[in-house]
């Protein structure tokens, strides 16, 4: 029996999604295309196995093979980040962060993170997230130039006296200076926690500062720039912290680990450890840089004036249209992006004055600077004539043809 025969409803929708991913240009900065080999591991019989606990210390029998799989994932993760301990069980980036807080904080402790509207993540203390409900959260942000001012962060830390400083972002186009954050954390006796969910793929290729040895604990997703399966990881060099993190994840907030996902993480890490990975990560940055240069040449303003990583933030504050309008218009032209707030935002968070555009997914399809130059020009064409539906339709056809020159998934996979 195949999925196609057993449940054609889900099969048809999965196929439609594959077609959507193939036809459109995916430029959401947090998305990527994982390897077919990772998808194979995700779809394996490992999903059947209960393995509560950790390798060699399980609550169930029959764990001899999943023990080896998880140990390989742990060892590869440690090798990638150059650290001593890794937990590869978090089901997502958010659960990884919840695990870190649970390990090192008590209810009501103060945390200092980056403001969501300045590029931070929900789990860095936003009031709607458990991180903002369980802990007393305070925020730093970016200056009007779009950059973190480390002296300002130090001043805020000095007033707040947080137990933990969280660094890392979801919408920040510049390098994060972990050494500076370490100095600030030391000056107030705080733990330093880096969440590298967005930049991990660059970090492990040496294309971004490494949070080690500066940070006490580091978390990441595995599905963004790392191009692995959807999931989370936590790393540290401190044995005491490592023990606390293990019990904070299981039995603290999770039950049986998703062994199929852990195997898929191991497969992804193998790719991340290869020489080919370094080529990919360099290209991600080169493509984002091309995108930035063309958009600036076409008269657009970028938050922080450019990019050091995998994304650009278009600042549309001076335009008659909003981030939401731009998001919709680009979507109609076959380019998937997301609206985003900008420093000094004057529109509501549902409308915004910015758009976040990332290079990782199209780079995974094999596109280089030549393609990014074309795409950046089409983005500018759409925005310069934002109400022109027939132009959007024409560009959509052109970009679909471009996209079809860069296929990664075989239709036979589904
Ligand atoms: C995406 C992201 C997360 C959350 O990851 P999920 O897997 O969606 O829970 C956490 N932190 C940062 C900085 C992120 O960008």
Protein model, in words:
With 414 residues, the protein is α/β, with parallel strands linked by helices. Strands 4-10-9-8-7-5-6 form a seven-stranded mixed β-sheet, with helices on both faces. Strands 11-12-15-14 form a four-stranded antiparallel β-sheet. The protein has helices at residues 3-6, 8-23, 36-42, 64-81, 93-104, 130-134, 150-160, 178-188, 200-203, 239-253, 259-272, 275-297, 323-332, 360-364, 369-384, 389-404; strands at residues 25-26, 53-54, 57-58, 85-87, 110-114, 136-140, 164-167, 191-195, 217-221, 232-236, 301-302, 311-315, 335-336, 338-340, 354-358. The chain starts with a helix and ends in a 10-residue tail after the last helix. Strand 2 and strand 3 (57-58) form a beta hairpin. It is globular. Bound molecules: pyridoxal-5'-phosphate.
Provide tags for this entry.
16 helices, Aspartate Aminotransferase, domain 1, alpha/beta, 2 domains, 414 residues, binds pyridoxal-5'-phosphate, 7-stranded mixed β-sheet, 4-stranded antiparallel β-sheet, 15 strands, Aspartate Aminotransferase, domain 2
Ordered list of secondary-structure elements with their pairings:
Blueprint: H1 3-6, H2 8-23, E1 25-26, H3 36-42, E2 53-54, E3 57-58, H4 64-81, E4 85-87, H5 93-104, E5 110-114, H6 130-134, E6 136-140, H7 150-160, E7 164-167, H8 178-188, E8 191-195, H9 200-203, E9 217-221, E10 232-236, H10 239-253, H11 259-272, H12 275-297, E11 301-302, E12 311-315, H13 323-332, E13 335-336, E14 338-340, E15 354-358, H14 360-364, H15 369-384, H16 389-404
Helix pairs in contact: 3-11, 4-11, 5-10, 7-8, 12-15, 15-16
Bound molecules: pyridoxal-5'-phosphate (PLP).
Pyridoxal-5'-phosphate binds next to helix 5.
């Amino acid at each position: 029996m195949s999925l196609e025969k057993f449940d054609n409803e889900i099969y048809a929708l999965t196929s439609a999604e594959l077609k959507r991913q193939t036809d459109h240009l995916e430029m959401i900065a947090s998305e990527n295309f994982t390897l077919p080999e990772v998808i194979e591991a995700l779809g394996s019989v490992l999903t059947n196995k209960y393995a509560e606990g950790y390798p060699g210390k399980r609550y169930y029998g029959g764990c001899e093979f999943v023990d080896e799989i998880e140990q390989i994932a742990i060892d590869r993760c440690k090798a990638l980040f150059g650290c001593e301990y890794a937990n590869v069980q978090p089901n997502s980036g958010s659960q990884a962060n919840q695990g870190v807080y649970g390990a090192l904080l008590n209810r009501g402790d103060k945390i200092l993170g980056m403001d969501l509207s300045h590029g931070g993540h929900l789990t860095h203390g936003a009031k709607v997230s458990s991180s903002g409900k369980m802990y007393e959260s305070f925020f730093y942000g970016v200056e009007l130039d779009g950059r973190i001012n480390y002296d300002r962060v130090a001043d805020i830390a000095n007033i707040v006296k947080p137990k933990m400083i969280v660094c890392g972002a979801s919408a920040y186009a510049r390098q994060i200076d972990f050494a500076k954050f370490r100095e600030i954390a030391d000056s107030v006796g705080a733990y330093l926690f880096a969440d590298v969910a967005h930049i991990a793929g660059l970090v492990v290729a040496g294309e971004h500062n490494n949070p080690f040895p500066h940070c006490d604990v580091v978390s990441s997703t595995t599905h963004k720039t790392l191009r692995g399966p959807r999931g989370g990881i936590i790393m540290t060099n401190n044995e005491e912290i490592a023990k606390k993190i293990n019990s904070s994840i299981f039995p603290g907030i999770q039950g049986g680990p998703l062994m199929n996902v852990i195997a898929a993480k191991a497969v992804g890490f193998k790719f991340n450890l290869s020489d080919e990975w370094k080529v990919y990560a360099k290209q991600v940055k080169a493509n984002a840089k091309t995108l930035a240069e063309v958009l600036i040449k076409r008269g657009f303003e970028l938050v922080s004036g450019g990019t050091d990583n995998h994304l650009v933030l278009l600042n549309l504050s001076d335009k008659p249209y909003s981030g939401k309008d731009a998001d919709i218009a680009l979507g109609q032209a076959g380019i998937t992006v997301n609206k985003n707030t900008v420093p000094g935002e004057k529109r509501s968070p549902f409308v915004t004055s910015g758009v976040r555009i990332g290079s990782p997914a199209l780079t995974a399809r094999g596109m280089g600077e030549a393609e990014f130059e074309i795409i950046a020009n089409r983005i500018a064409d759409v925005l310069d004539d934002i109400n022109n539906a027939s132009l959007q339709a024409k560009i959509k056809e052109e970009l679909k043809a471009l996209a079809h020159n860069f296929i990664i998934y075989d239709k036979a996979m589904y």
